Amino acid sequence: MSHTSEIAERVRPHRRDSCILVGFLVAATTLYGFLKLASEVVEGDTVAIDVMILQALRTAQDMTVPVGPTWLKTVLIDFTALGGAPILALVTLLAVGFLAAQRKWATAAFVVLSICGGAVLSALIKTVFSRERPELVPHLVEVASPSFPSGHAMNSAIVYLTLAVLLARSQEPRRLQVYLISIAVCLTLLVGTTRVFLGVHWPSDVLAGWMVGAAWAALCSLGAKMLQNSRRIERPAHETPV
């Protein structure tokens, strides 16, 4: 074994431990943040800032008219669909197909279970809190489910972040991993922002959705890491012994 290979073998366990630690920290921090925010929402402590932000996104003369150019409303309605069930299901299907084409069957199955589990979690949390939608401003799209947390924000975070993390773990080089995760973060933030702009969610709903989604993605990443270490799902090519 070359000197470079020996160094790589020594560094690899430390990198593995660091990734696990970061995953736990992200999950713990975001879950704590969600619980803290949920407590404040229940007590009504977020009402003032929620109202202020929603009102700031509408013109003072007519609350039915959003701020910005006239085309912005149409664009954001299109963007908010990126967090809807049909698009998220399609993205998940494409990601699973990509993994299947690489014959990473176990990883593909783990992705399906992770996304489905996240969807169930989202529905359960909404049912528990049953917060009313904001009636402060007219809704620019039709909605029916409870408000807290934002399903679009949470489900987009669950799908995009989880897929990005799991796909990134099975890909190389590192710049591709960074690209996948960066795109996922941008899509997640974009979808959540549109929900507030369209008046169908309080800002605290969206923030809560982001937190739970990020926590779920972090936990899925930890699960994938442990399963890869135990060889129950496929390891990245650069970690697979020759």
Topology:
Layout: H1 3-43, H2 47-56, H3 70-80, H4 85-101, H5 105-129, H6 151-169, H7 174-197, H8 203-229
Helix pairs in contact: 1-8, 3-7, 4-5, 4-6, 5-6, 5-8, 6-7, 6-8, 7-8
- The portion of residues assigned to helices is over 70%
| Rg, Å, rounded | 20 Å
**Coarse structural class:** mainly alpha
Distance between the termini: 12 Å
The largest sheet is: none
Q: What is the chains' assembly state?
A: single chain
Uncertain regions: pLDDT < 50 for 5+ in a row? 3-12
The overall pLDDT, averaged over residues, is 83
Helix segment tally: 8
User: Helix and strand succession?
Assistant: HHHHHHHH
> How does the overall form come out from the CA principal axes?
globular
Query: What is the number of strand segments?
Result: 0
Strand content: under 5%
Plain-language structure description:
The structure is a single chain. The radius of gyration is 20 Å and the shape is globular. It is mainly α. The two termini are 12 Å apart.
Index terms:
mainly alpha, 242 residues, 0% strand
TL;DR of this structure?
The chain has helices at 3-43, 47-56, 70-80, 85-101, 105-129, 151-169, 174-197, 203-229. The protein has 242 residues and is an all-alpha fold.
